[in-house]
């Protein structure tokens, strides 16, 4: 599994990521045009 720091923020130095609050514990929630209720249900199921 790739972490967001390895994909989205890989070009930033560790110092810059840390300054912006980006670390390996980051969880990314890509969302689009889904209904709010559907997103909440999906997140609750995942947790």
Quick overview of this protein structure:
The protein has 47 residues and is mainly alpha-helical. It has helices spanning 4-7, 14-19, 36-46.
What's the helix and strand layout?
Layout lengths: L3 H4 L6 H6 L16 H11 L1
List keywords for this structure.
single chain; 47 residues; 3 helices; 45% helix
What does this structure look like?
By secondary structure, the protein is mostly helical. It is built from three helices and no strands. The protein is elongated and about 35 Å long. The chain starts with a helix and ends with a helix. The model has no long low-confidence stretch (mean pLDDT 80).
Q: Which segments are poorly predicted (pLDDT under 50) over 5 or more consecutive residues?
A: none
Gross morphology is elongated
Backbone structural class = mainly alpha
* Percentage beta strand: under 5%
Mind summarizing the main beta sheet?
Answer: none
Rounded to the nearest angstrom, the distance between the terminal CA atoms is 18 Å
* Average residue pLDDT: 80
Give the beta-strand count.
Answer: 0
Give helix % range.
Answer: 40-55%
Our Rg estimate from Cα atoms comes to 14 Å
Supply the number of helical segments: 3
- Taken in chain order, the helices and strands follow as HHH
